[in-house]
Each structure stands twice: as C-alpha cells, then as structure tokens.
Amino acid sequence: MILEALEYLTTPCPRWARDMGYLTEAIAIRHRARRCRADWQPHQANTKAAILSAAHAYGPLPEITILGAGLCLDVPVDELSHLTDRLTLIDAVRLRGIRLPKNVRYLCMDVEGSAVALHSGKLASETPLADFDGPGLIVSVNLLSQLPLIPNRWSDDTALNQRIVHRHVQSLRDHKGPTLLIADAVRWTLDMKGAVLLQEDIAQSAGLPSPEQTWRWPIIPAHEAGKGPRIESDVGVWWL
Which positions ≥6 away from 180 have C-beta within 8 Å? Predict the structure, then answer.
C-alpha cells in the first residue's frame, strides 16, 4: 500500500484522470499484474500475437494506434515500432517505467470521451477518434468492457453503459483504415466453488458477431480473490 501511495503522489496525469480514479485504477492493475503474472501470461501472449498478425497483414503502415495501451504488458511495442513510421499508444494514464522507442508516442486521453465530458460538464463527442481517422491500423486492446466502469460511477444515466460501448464499437467501424478489436466477449463472476454468480455477454450487448478467435483469461484467479469472487473472461478478436 505504501508503494502504491507513493506512486499515486508522484505520477503526473491529467486532472480528470486523477479526480475520477483512473490513476488509482492503473496503479492497482500494475500491482495485480505482478501478483497474477503467471495467470495472465497466456492472455498477454495471445493479445500480442493477434496485434502482430494484424500489423503484418496490413504492413507497411504509416501509423499504428493502440487504444488501451496501459502498461504495454499485452502490446508488442518494440516489434510494432519496426512495422510503422509512427506508433501511438493511448490510455487515460501513463505510469512511470514505460520505455518507448524513438518513433513511439504515448498520449494520455479519454479515447471514448464520456469521462472528460462528465468531469467538465460538457457533452461527449460522437466522433471521439476523429483525430486518428487516417489510413493506419487502429487496435482497441482489452478496453471495451472497461470504458463504462468509471463513468458509470459519476452518472445516474442508466443508458450510459450501453451508449459508451456502442459508441466505441461504432467509432472503430467508422475508421477508414484497418481496425482490430480485442475485448471481453463474455465475462463470468464465480464463487469460491466455481458456481456462476453473474454472466455478462459483452459482445452480444455491443452488437458484435461471433469473434474470429477466443481464449480464456483468469482476470482474478482464486489465489488473488481469496474468499471473494473470481472473475474470468473469454476474450475475443474481431476485424471491424
């Protein structure tokens, strides 16, 4: 807890990201990733492989943009930097310790727009990815189910969750270049004995077809959950 507190105090980030809890969440994920390294490794390897497959399929590319870059644990930064003139990584927060090649930039921004809109009291843009609407590859990485979580805490709008998910998918579909979506297709909350407490059909609610590739990700495995619920996800890959 002391290390997390120090990291919170010394990490620069946008005001909205700090106020709304994005920095706190990012730091918590970093420490969970360390505790669950072995459990998460297959998921991270599969994600990297899917991204590289897309980059090779459409290369050479003028630009590759990664939405939801996070700690880059599931993003093959070095390999991608050799496949494009410019690699852009985007997330709400950039934690310290992420080293980047010269042709890579990391932008701290709200990729969907609802968080900044709620924080500022303004309306969210219906085209949040307009600045990246070029011929390059856009990849949304393990982001879709996460986008509504913090905005939902700041709003009483019961339709906000669905609106955020649909807007993100539509923004990806509207992109003029190639687009890859890697996201939770179905997520389960399980009790200590493995019984299903909650099943969330995220892909279906987002209007997505069956994914072209899937794998299981133990997001909160038993040793991390303790006496609390476990969380597992079937991650899917879609070309949009």
Answer: 50, 51, 54, 137, 138, 139, 140, 237, 238, 239, 240
Q: How many CB atoms lie within 10 A of CB 10?
A: 8
> Would residue 119 count as lying in a domain?
yes
Q: What is the domain extent for residue 154?
A: 2-179
Arithmetic mean of pLDDT over the chain: 94
Contact 69, 106 (CB under 8 A): yes
Q: Is residue 12 part of a domain?
A: yes
Portion of the chain with pLDDT greater than 70, in percent: 100
Is residue 211 domain-resident? Answer: no
Rounded CA gap, 9 and 11, in Å?
Answer: 6
Rounded distance between C-alpha atoms, residue 152 and residue 172, angstroms: 22
Query: Does the residue 206 lie in any domain?
Result: no
Hey, is 6 helix, strand or coil?
helix
How many structural domains does the chain have? 1
Long-range contacts of 80-89 (CB under 8 A, 24+ apart): 80/51, 80/52, 80/55, 83/55, 83/56, 83/59, 84/55, 84/59, 84/60, 84/136, 84/137, 85/61, 86/62, 87/63, 88/63, 88/64, 88/132
Q: How far apart are CA 126 and CA 168, in angstroms?
A: 9
The whole-number average pLDDT for the span 114-131 is 89
For residue 192, the SS3 value is coil
Tokens of 82: 């050799």
Q: Taking the complete model, does pTM exceed 0.85, yes or no?
A: yes
